Amino acid sequence: MLFIPFLRNLLSGIRYRLQLRRNKRLQGLSIGWFQRKYLKHLPGGKIRSITLFGRQLFYEAPQELLHGLREIFVEEIYRQTLSSKPTIIDCGANIGLSVLYFKRQFPDATIIAFEPDPQNYTLLQKNIASHQLKDIQCNQAAVWIENTRINFSAKKGMASGISLTDSEHCIQVSAARLKDYLNQKIDFLKIDIEGAEWEVLKDCAPELTNVQHLFVEYHGAFKEQEKLTEIFSLLQQAGFHYYIREAAPIFTHPFQQKNSTHPYDLQLNLFAFRN
After folding, report:
1. Furthest-apart CA pair in the chain: how many Å?
2. 3-class DSSP state for residue 135?
3. Any idea of the CA torsion for 220, 65, 216, 175, to the nearest 10 degrees?
4. Confidence of residue 36 (pLDDT cuts 50, 70, 90)
5. CA separation for the pair 117, 173 (Å, rounded)
6. Which of 108, 164, 162, 168 is nearest to 133 (CA)?
7. What pLDDT shows up at residue 66?
8. Do β-strands 161-163 and 148-153 pair in parallel, antiparallel, or remain unpaired?
């Protein structure tokens, strides 16, 4: 039985290398099988760096780094056709992998990036400087429905995000109202804000007509499915067509795991676009 996991890992590695070879834009993403295995089992909590596209990329969470590299650079989840000088808003920029991808795809893009987590924001700035990226406005702030200070859970992974209640893991961070940034044409709006999507999209619904392409990573619970329904309605009212894809297989057996204590029951990628 030990042969099956080995074969699965081998096939995964072969598929990964073939994807890199087929895409010329990924030249420089030279992360080999052994390095990926090393990163997979490396403990977090310490700032380290790898070489990416010939320059240093700084990170703290190895598993999240691997997930981001695969999703953004190998699977190219944000791949699209935009104008030569697009305006892009990145809500939840993390350590800057998405910003780096956008700049490699659209070198003349203007990017407005938001990241509330202090450690991630520090790494975001270091990575922008390391890769000599220009025309990027970085904001150390959570995206929210008003300009204020708000509780933010600084745990890693899906446990992080805006918290409307006090918690021992919460810190106070600045919050920026996304609506204020959508009074102009936005070629691409990325929203990955760990659970605050519904509130933010409702607040800026009238301004969504200024957005050409929209990506939302939705985090929700079974008992709050009316929020997802309302998001679909908002997208339709703004004139979007949309495509839905599971972001992560949270439950292997949903019938048996429906009462789980997992932070979210649903994690979906929503791709909204215009014809």
Report:
1. 58
2. coil
3. 80
4. confident
5. 8
6. 108
7. 93
8. antiparallel
Minimal CA–CA distance to 248: which of 228, 229, 259, 263? 263
Q: Each residue of 71-84: pLDDT tens digit?
A: 999 999 999 999 99
Query: Token pair of 250, please?
Result: 């949270």
Strand-strand pairing, 186-191 and 87-91: parallel
What's the burial of 221, exposed, middle or buried (CB within 10 Å: 0-12/13-18/19+)? Answer: middle
What mean pLDDT is predicted for residues 95-116? 98
Q: How many CB atoms lie within 10 A of CB 222?
A: 12
pLDDT for residue 166: 61
Q: Sign of torsion, CA 208 209 211 217?
A: positive
pLDDT score of 221: 82
On average, the pLDDT of the chain sits at 87
Q: What is the Cα–Cα distance from 103 to 52, expressed in whole angstroms?
A: 14
- Quick one: tokens of 63? 């598993």
Helix axes 33-40, 3-22, angle to 10 degrees: 120
Structure tokens at 57: 């990329």
CA-CA-CA-CA torsion for 219, 223, 227, 229, nearest 10 degrees? 110
* Number of residues that make up the chain: 275
CATH 3.40.50.150 in the chain is located at: 85-273
- Give the span between the Cα atoms of 185 and 225, in whole angstroms: 31
Residue 158: pLDDT band (50, 70, 90) is very low
CATH number of 85-273: 3.40.50.150
Adjacent-strand bridge partners of 211 = 186
